[in-house]
Amino acid sequence: MGILEKISEIEKEIARTQKNKATEYHLGLLKAKLAKYRSQLLEPSKKGGDKGEGFDVLKSGDARVALIGFPSVGKSTLLSTLTHTHSEAASYEFTTLTCIPGVIEYRGANIQLLDLPGIIEGAAQGKGRGRQVKKGGGLSFNSTCQLTKVDEKMVQMILHEYKIFNAEVLFREDATADDLIDVILANRVYLPCLYVYNKIDQISIQEVDRIARQPHTVVVSCNMKLNLDFLLETLWEYLSLIRVYTKKPGQPPDFEDGLILRKGVTIEHVCHAIHRTLAAALKYALVWGTSTKYSPQRVGLGHTVQDEDVVQLIKK
Predict the structure, then answer these.
(1) Which of 81, 125, 168, 288 is in Cβ range 3.0-4.6 Å of 310 for a Cys bridge?
(2) Can you give the residue ranges of the TGS domain (predicted)?
(3) Do residues 262 and 242 touch, judged by C-beta distance below 8 A?
(4) Residue 8 dihedral angles phi and psi, to the nearest 5°
(5) 71 near 120, Cβ under 8 Å?
(6) Does residue 159 have a pLDDT over 70?
(7) CA neighbours closer than 13 Å in the CB half-sphere of residue 298
(8) Alpha-carbon Rg of the chain, whole angstroms?
(9) Can you list the domains of the chain with their CATH numbers?
């Protein structure tokens, strides 16, 4: 039976099932299956191995970059070179056995760099460091309010339908089964990827040129400190970061402590970055920089700022 036929059968079963206390679990499971099959029409499902243990590292800085790759390709050396953080480096596999964090200071931003253990083919089946068995797992269920539309059993059934067996679930409002399904389906984040080829000092110029022409690619040599500046520039572009400087009335701009924000942010985001109540109290803003025709130019909350703009906020 194809996906369209399965969707049709589930829709018919939902339509003929009377909604009451005895059928609420069954209906919740049907809705979960229906949403899953509908999403598969847009994105084919991919089978994978059992999930291993993650690495809990406190997030810090303005952005985060993870180093993912094969063993002994120079990830630890790259971390040590860019962040001055020591990460054990050697010519044998699996020198790094856990996540090592470091911080890159670049253009006034602090970018957290994570050195992850090397991966190999077949890691999902337990080869190398691929499978790290957790001492405990399962579903943790909590709520900050009284739940009248779902309970722990229904939540467990819906999560199991999506092959989620280890999770911490927290309800902050009296949500429905449909709300839970929407959260599960929306919990997908596609991150930009940059391929960094190390040890270019060990191959020919022709091969370096061929690799460097590939999309989303930077070639470097950590040992010889080659092309690391271009790598940092490319990381900055991929992270879509900008610097916005603030200015108090009658004083020069503060170029020492700028705000690090994402491209596309507005004056309202600038206000929230300074204080969460500032946007409501703002009368207008004066902006110097490439985002305006004049310097300064009076703008409102919806004005989009650009890199190295200077902003002066005028309160009501």
Answers:
(1) 288
(2) 240-315
(3) yes
(4) -60, -45
(5) yes
(6) yes
(7) 5
(8) 25
(9) 3-44+136-186 (no CATH), 57-119+191-239 (3.40.50.300), 242-315 (3.10.20.30)
Query: What's the token pair of residue 139?
Result: 């579903």
Rounded to two decimals, what is the model's pTM?
0.61
The whole-angstrom separation of Cα 29 and Cα 166 is 18
| 301-313 residue pLDDT tens | 999 999 999 999 9
Distance CA 292, CA 306 (A): 9
Q: What is the Cα–Cα distance from 263 to 90, expressed in whole angstroms?
A: 38
Look up residue 80 and give its two tokens.
């040590």
Q: Other C-beta atoms within 10 Å of 112: how many?
A: 19
DSSP 196-226: EE--GGGS-HHHHHHHHTSTTEEE-BTTTTB
Q: What is the DSSP letter of 286?
A: E
* Residue 137 near residue 54 (C-beta atoms within 8 A): no
| Nearest C-alpha neighbor of 114 from the set 57, 189, 62, 71 | 57
**Better pLDDT: 123 or 301:** 301
